Amino acid sequence: LLVLQAINIVLPFITVPYVTRVFGVELYGVFTLALNWVTYFQLVIEYGFNLSATKKVVEADGTDAYCRLVSSVVSARLVLLAACFCVMLGLYAFSAVDAMQLGCMLVLFSMLLGIAIQLNWLFQGLQDMKVITIATAISRGFSVVLIFLLINNPSQLVLYSFFYSITFLASGLITHWFALRRYGIRMVKTSSHEIWEELKDGMPIFLSSAAGKII
């Protein structure tokens, strides 16, 4: 967990000095404002599942229980993702963001999709973080290489947004592949009641974390 957190924090220190020189203050400011909005949406999509769902992983017994839990949590996150997408379009409709920021936000939504499907909480509950950490490090490192190799002029702001966000989607897909190969855990059909139960269980944690971050 320490290594995973360090990867998320340290890598931007490598890329930010470079891209700020490429894009300049104004264009990098456009990206940063778009990323700030997406970060608020990330808070919604993560909800309280990183704690509430991890607790249920520890309590679950058997592959079938894991499959139902994964399906319910991922489905709940996808519902929240759809709601955030509607809010984003509303921001543009009411001129809270301009067209360039909207373009960046649309591309950065692949980051939110990756976060929605990520199963890091599952592997934390299973106490098996090694492969996920290695996969995350490789994908984020590959993104850094692409940024240095291919981002070299101010017109590539949307492409930079893509390189920034695609690693989250890749990590999310890798977690599903690893869950299936190692534990036989896959997505199954889930009910609206099960989705609501996961939202209800994660709500206290979400409200406590969201209050501090929004303030």
Proportion of residues in extended strands: under 5%
Helix-strand string = HHHHHHHH
Distance between the termini: 27 Å
Overall strand count: 0
Bulk shape: globular
The count of helical stretches stands at 8
* Helical/strand content category: mainly alpha
Report the C-alpha radius of gyration, rounded.
Answer: 18 Å
Give the overall average pLDDT.
89
Helix amount, in percent? over 70%
Assembly level: single chain
What's the main sheet like? none
- Unreliable spans are none
Comma- or semicolon-separated keywords:
about 0% strand
Describe the structure.
- With 215 residues, the protein is an all-alpha fold.
- Helix 1 crosses helix 6.
- 85% of the residues lie in helices and 0% in strands.
- It has helices at 2-46, 49-59, 63-93, 99-117, 120-125, 130-150, 157-183, 192-214.
- It has eight helices and no strands.
- The model has no long low-confidence stretch (mean pLDDT 89).
Give the arrangement of secondary structure elements.
Elements: H1 2-46, H2 49-59, H3 63-93, H4 99-117, H5 120-125, H6 130-150, H7 157-183, H8 192-214
Helix pairs in contact: 1-3, 1-4, 1-6, 1-8, 2-8, 3-4, 3-8, 4-7, 6-7
Explain briefly what this protein structure is.
By secondary structure, the chain is mainly α.
